[in-house]
Amino acid sequence: MQELTHYINGQHVKGTSGRFADVFNPATGEVQAKCPLASVEEMDAAVAAAQAAQPAWAATNPQRRARVMMEFVRLLNRDMDKLAEALSREHGKTFPDAKGDIQRGLEVVEYCIGAPQMLKGEFTDGAGPGIDIYSMRQPLGVTAGITPFNFPAMIPMWMFAPALACGNAFILKPSERDPSVPLMLAELMEEAGLPKGILQVVNGDKVAVDAILDHEVIQSIGFVGSTPIAQYIYGRGCSNGKRVQCFGGAKNHMIIMPDADMDQAADALVGAGYGAAGERCMAISVAVPVGDETADRLIEKLVPRIEKLKVGPYTAGNDVDYGPVVTAEAKARILGLVETGIAQGAKLVVDGRDFKLQGYEDGFFVGPHLFDHVTPDMDIYTQEIFGPVLSTVRAGSYEEALKLAMDHEYGNGTAIFTRDGDAARDFAARINIGMVGINVPIPVPLAYHTFGGWKKSGFGDLNQHGPDSFKFYTRTKTVTARWPSGIKEGGEFNFKPMD
What is the dihedral of CA 375, 377, 383, 388, to 10 degrees? Predict the structure, then answer.
């Protein structure tokens, strides 16, 4: 049995708390490793090392810090397959999906190579008589991130890349369900030239999280996970005077207008709804066709596509559509919500409850499910299922479809499929959701824009990556300077009598 470590001050360090979490192979259900769960003392040691190392890193000019990011990109490309295999083994993602996880993180690192430009301040010449005013963007100090299981490469890089580029040290507390890739990323960062102690990986559970929230040295916290935990971290972190950004749950709607290309819409829904077994905060989990005729046409297109989905382990080849969910508990919760949907009156059009994979009977595989005639009062509509379950809510009009998305408590992502530019512009302008796709099912912005939801999907004023990340990981200092006049004429050569 492999025993994983923390990564503190440039070394793999065994856990000393005596507490461990099981790391499963989701495809087989077997425990493949033990992950140490840090004590408060272990977290304190990591923070102390980061605090000692950070001033020298902050004093390194931004261009040299950017060169470390540039080399890190090269190393990520070099080790892409190795990282993806480790990710798939612990998470269950298909191999191509795991590489995509790494690639979307890598793109943020590429953006951070532009740190010298992003960290430039402002200058006003002659703001007053002999007065100049200028601003500087300076690092916060020691920062931290708490990241989820579903993107064990991408989201850590979304956080630590801009934090490090700005001159901060960073404490990463990854998910204890799939911790190997974050440890590998820390090794690669140091191989790229990052000084020891600047990026620490401390594995743990609530004990480690609370230690981060309460540690007076840690200046900022990033979090991605469920909304209840996001609210907890945001409230406790802010009350301790920290800068906090938290991203929570989602229930992403896709509106399908009568004029939409129905084949395109169906393909988009299958990929967005069932990719990564639905374990994405940007997954489309609610299809909203406008009109019964549109709904009937959509269901007719969806059913054969869903029934052809290939579910299996990442080792079965690149034509696998999705793999297992992350734990047995996650599988049980998903199937429990499916049963609730049936009991509350939804029509189960594609039934994946009896899905079994020969040779992997103990794995955490969940077959694809499609519901029709779902109503807003049902649990499968109000709750984030985080599994391969797509719900269809029929809307009588565009305004009714718009209201469904706007009234839901989550506001992460949404999409509309239509050929009507007027409808698309109206939708984008009015919808109260942070990320909008027009004929794009999963509208995750590219690295040079920002990522963030509204309502109960996001807490904090600044989003992830893009320009917001450089604002989040720096403080602005403004200097007003006036220099005494009268010395620019040079020296006095004549004896000056005393006044």
Answer: -20
CA–CA distance, 189 with 57 (Å, rounded to integer): 14
Among 112, 166, 246, 281, which one carries the catalytic annotation?
A: 281
162: closest CA among 380, 466, 420? 466
Answer whether 0.90 is exceeded by the pTM.
Answer: yes
pLDDT per residue as tens digits for the range 99-144: 999 999 999 999 999 999 999 999 999 998 889 999 999 999 999 9
CATH 3.20.20.140, domain 2-248+457-481, yes or no: no
Its CATH architecture, for the domain 252-438, is 3-Layer(aba) Sandwich (3.40)
**Nearest to 5, CA basis, from 165, 204, 142:** 204
pLDDT in tens, 12-69: 999 999 999 999 999 999 999 999 999 999 999 999 999 999 999 999 999 999 999 9
**Token reading at 475:** 């403080």
What CA–CA distance (Å, rounded) separates 184 from 23? 16
Residue 35 is among the residues annotated as catalytic for this protein: no
Q: Which residue type does 447 have?
A: A
Torsion from C-alpha of 275, 280, 282, 284, nearest 10 degrees: 50
